[in-house]
Amino acid sequence: MKLKLTMVFLWIFAAMATYSQSAYLVSKKSQDNQNTKENILSAPIVSDSDRDMNNVWLHWDSGTNDNGIGTNDGSTFTVAARWEVGDLAAYNGDKVSKVKVFIYEEGFSSIVLKIWTGNNASNLIYQKQLTSINPGSWKETVIPTDIFVNSNQEFWVGYTVFNPVSGQFPAGADAGPALRQKGDMISFDEISWFSLAEANPELDYNWNIQFFVEGQTSSVTADFSASQTNITAGQSVSFTNLSSGANEWTWAFEGGSPSISSQQNPTITYSNEGTFNVTLTAKNGAQQDVETKTNYITVGSSGGPLSVEVTADPSTTICEFGNTTLTAVASGGNGTYQYTWTWDIDGQSVNGNVLNITSLSQSTNVYLKVVSGGQEVNETISITVEDNPPSSVVGKGTPERILICPHPDLEYQWFQNNTIIDGATKQFYYPGSFTDLSGTYYVLTTNTVGCKSYSENYTIGNNKISDMEKA
Prior knowledge:
By secondary structure, this protein is mainly beta. It is built from two helices and 41 strands. The protein has a six-stranded antiparallel β-sheet.
């Protein structure tokens, strides 16, 4: 059977049918009362807990192709099989070495195999354009990159069909029923995902997508992180389990409540001040690993109200391509401070109480966040960049013999041969009737805010202003 999908309406076509005969939201099997679906899916097809690290294919589909799915307007689409957190616990630490997909028929510009992790397939970790595809068969691909199963995060495997031909149905599927939100995910932008069967119950199928894992001889590694490590008495900390290869966890929280937990990602409350250790033991059968973070959680009193003072050296107003240094000094809180600076221009973030700003070419806002003992304060510092003044030199030749900076309302200092000319501080400079006026002249201009610019060099030769040349 061939199936056809659009963003708004779903239409189903019999495998050998033409476009002239179609049924709105009804499959050919439903029309003929020939629905032969079997309720075979409730867990990954391979989930043998006694497999002894055997190498296995993991998939939600039946393993047999029955249908093909495409779009009626040539829209590029992506299909995927999804494993939720915990689905692959028995395979934690195993290496993903191969992927195979069933391509039902031709009619596309290209197909790109993809692997993602995270909620909503948020992290694309592998992609490869498939070549030498034989429509109507499985396409198997070896994964050269080290990708290991981590059941603490979602795992997605699928592919994108680019520019499918209208009336062609490249994406292979089984006879169903779909394991919804797992075996039948589809998207037109890889941002919004939905279940094919939930969009239209008649499209109750799983994609023919499978991946192969190889058991690792030493797969258990314990690790974790905390939502915060510097808190005030009475606050709670959420711990994230980053272990791999484990299906059992035992936590020990010095100074925490509860002090022991077997949850995968527990939340612990600390009521007393002090510095405390956290220990996680990760296990899988006879294998285990222990991770202890010493003096990991610091609990202090809230202290007084948190405040911060920011100073700028030399100023918050600087000249174009100038430098300034911002220094923050916090008080109150519990005496331990975390400083974070960000700014408008590129959104970068810097930690520490001192921020050095160099070669700034435009005005910007700088944002400071200070955290201490469960309190937080935020400050905005505006850095204003003033334009440097214009500076150039023109000369009036014989008989005037005058050098002029054609930019009024500035301060001026003239130079000859890199030496200050005493008293030459006006908009023009008259060398006078000296024996030799030849040399290199330039002027330094300063505006009302103190920004400075040097003109380019101008040369006088043969004792004549009219012979000046731009250096």
